[in-house]
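Schema walk-through. Below, the input block comes first and the output block second. Nothing else is stored per chain. Lengths vary across the set, and this one has 266 residues.
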Amino acid sequence: MGRFGWLKIIIIVYFTLGVVLYFLQDKFLFHPKSLPTDYTYHFAEPFQEINIIISKNESLDLVKFFPRDSVRKGVVLYFHGNMENINRYAKFADIFTSKGYEVWMPDYPGFGKSTGKPTEEKLYEVASLTYTLANAKYSNDSIIIYGKSLGTGIASQLAAARDCRALILETPYYSIPDLFSYYVPFYPTGLLSKYKIPTYKYLSSVKTHILIFHGTADEVIPYRCAAKLKSALKPTDEFVSIQGGQHNNLNNFEVLKKKINNLLIN
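--- output ---
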């Protein structure tokens, strides 16, 4: 086969893979585990589950975790990662409930008992609805917005649009196209990505305190993807680099617990 023939094959393969990446990107980005409507949650923390009908084909399932005593200092709106459902992330509520904060954790469309299909706008709508419900009970300065992994961009968009006491991000990304470019550097990810979620853009509009945690050994969202967010931060914000920290173990590090505890009690 001549040089032109090989070039033709390379071009065909390149464009074919590009088409596959475009149409299957939801499969790469989201890894939900749906649950039947009659599924019963079992958590160590006191909790309440609510299901909100949004439209004929869409509903939002939300679990509220409560402190064991009657003291309520505020609420943490917790936007989780791209895996499974609330069952996977419920264990992280304790760091807040033990300090007198409720934790409200919604599932995204298609995750757990939430129905519908995720789009970027639908993810933002989930966050906005969760905030509106919380704001009916708590004032702005008693609401902390927390994002983990995928949820960091969603949390950042919400904090840019609505007032809150603080924004906490665990393993964030600069933007979805920027993250995709790490995995497929030879493609124009800005054009291929149906999801943009420009975290960097939202952070530059957040007026409240921002606290970011990222591990230097993160194997899912590379440290460099998060470090680029430093340019969007205010002088009073914090970017905490956790040496040796990976994507799913930052809660094991004392520096994260200490920083969050200091924010909650001050």
